[in-house]
Write a structure and sequence with these properties.
Layout lengths: L2 H18 L16 H4 L9 E5 L5 H8 L3 E6 L2 H13 L5 E4 L13 E7 L8 H11 E12 L1 H4 L2 E2 L4 E2 L13 E5 L2 E8 L4 H10 L2 E7 L5 H7 L15 E8 L1
Parallel strand pairs: 1-2, 1-4, 2-3, 4-5
Antiparallel strand pairs: 5-11, 6-7, 8-9, 10-11
Helix pairs in contact: 1-4
Length: about 250
């Protein structure tokens, strides 16, 4: 999927995405399947720290960082998502900057000037991930942190692209790196594409980009969400048994 196509898709689904995934702005989050930052405390005290929120979407995490005293900037490919983010920041009277850019080209930002690059469920949509990680490395000073979350790679095995749905038996190999494509719920005209990598491949790409992995988290999914999406008496109940989210914490060497 081209950058232009991805941008157009996210612009068109932005309103529905925000309606479906309305997030609070009192704490950063790591996606629906994981505890929030106020519980995990992976970033520590962010007061006075420069944080780049990569793939910020509606800006909720960016705003949360700013409310906690960080100097926060959000980056996203979608003008519609950034428009939502700016309106939300204005409504909450929070001073943050939002910039439209791709994750592979962060040339608008100074090298070695950032404490933290943060990303929630955005990096799997990046086609040229090595270039993106190299850009993140360039922005961080030595000892700076890259913290990001995504769907657990094992979960990808249980998505049937032909049927466009989750299934209880693996429908693709864990080692198959072909992109996954699916349609946004109730919008057959909106197709999204993400890129699958094994955990070992993620770690290897981080090392090439001069990062040292310091923590790897696979939090247990919240019981209420499992009950809602994969009820124990439902056809997809076996999916309750696999991890749903993975969180990487890496330090710039």
């Amino acid at each position: 999927m081209s950058v232009a196509a991805a941008q157009s898709t996210w612009d068109r689904l932005s309103a529905d995405f925000q309606a479906r995934h309305d997030r609070a702005t009192d704490s950063a989050h790591y996606g629906p399947w994981a505890p929030r930052e106020d519980e995990l405390r992976l970033l520590g005290d962010v007061r006075g720290r420069h944080i780049l929120d990569l793939g910020c979407g509606g800006g909720q995490c960016t705003i949360a960082f700013a409310r906690q005293g960080a100097i926060a900037t959000g980056v996203d490919i979608s003008a519609a998502q950034l428009g939502y983010a700016r309106r939300l920041a204005a409504a909450e009277k929070v001073d943050v900057q939002f910039v439209q850019a791709t994750a592979e080209d962060l040339s608008a930002f100074a090298a070695g000037a950032w404490d933290i690059v943060f990303s929630t469920y955005a990096l799997p949509y990046v086609a040229d991930l090595p270039r993106c990680l190299a850009e993140c490395s360039r922005l961080l000073y030595a000892g700076g942190l890259l913290i990001f979350s995504l769907d657990h790679p094992l979960r990808d095995c249980f998505f049937d692209m032909e049927e466009d749905e989750m299934v209880i038996f693996p429908s693709r190999s864990y080692f198959d790196n072909q992109p996954a494509r699916w349609r946004w719920p109730d919008r057959i005209d909106l197709v999204l594409q993400s890129y699958h990598h094994t955990i070992a491949q993620w770690i290897a790409m981080l090392a090439v980009a001069d990062f040292r992995l310091t923590r790897l988290l696979e939090p247990a999914p919240p019981a209420n969400l499992l009950d809602a999406i994969f009820p124990s008496d439902g056809a997809l109940a076996p999916l309750r048994l696999i991890p749903q989210t993975i969180i990487f914490v890496a330090e710039k060497r």
